[in-house]
Amino acid sequence: MKRVLPMVVAAILLAVPAFAQTGKPSGSGTSEKGSSAGSASKTMSATGTVASVSASSLTVKGKSGDMTFTVDEKTHVTASGASHKSAANKADNKPTQITDMVHEGDQVTVKYHDMGATKHAADVRVSKAAAGAAPKK
């Protein structure tokens, strides 16, 4: 019995890392296209220049062409001055929209979920603001 217990413990310790792996490969995923049921939960990334932006959509011109993303209140935007703008709007009881922080000509990276017919932007990061970009009134 004294010899069996250490062997069982060793076997369990060796097996735990094998069960902890998810089996999902990591990568950018921008070229992945599939019809599997899990494709809606994959986070993909696109980088380019903002061609147009509205309260409900964002169009980015990238190397492989234009991509249009849907945006909503769950879309997280990271840009210079974005937290101050959000705080000011919250103090005035006004909703913050993507058009307050993202403008045509900005260089952006969009992390999105491919929902089949639409692409939902989960995170928009402005890496370089367009020269002379000012909020539209």
Q: Which oligomeric form is depicted?
A: single chain
Query: How many angstroms does the end-to-end distance come to?
Result: 79 Å
| Portion of residues within helices | 10-25%
Strand content: 25-35%
Widest sheet, order of strands: 3-2-1-5-6-4
Structural class of the helix and strand makeup?
Answer: alpha+beta
Number of strands: 6
Radius of gyration: 22 Å
Low-confidence stretches: 22-40
Largest sheet: 6 strands, mixed
Shape: elongated
| Number of helices in the DSSP assignment | 2
> What number is the mean pLDDT?
78
Order of helices and strands: HEEEEHEE
Task: Please provide a written account of the structure.
The chain has two helices and six strands; from the N terminus they run αββββαββ. By secondary structure, the chain is of the alpha+beta class. The chain has a six-stranded mixed beta sheet, with no helix packed on it. Strand 5 and strand 6 (119-128) form a beta hairpin. The radius of gyration is 22 Å and the shape is elongated. The model is unreliable at 22-40 (pLDDT under 50).
Structure summary:
This protein has two helices and six strands. It has helices at residues 4-20, 82-91; strands at residues 43-53, 57-62, 65-70, 76-78, 107-114, 119-128. The radius of gyration is 22 Å and the shape is elongated.
Identify the notable features of this structure and list them briefly:
137 residues, alpha+beta, 6-stranded mixed β-sheet, 2 helices, 20% helix
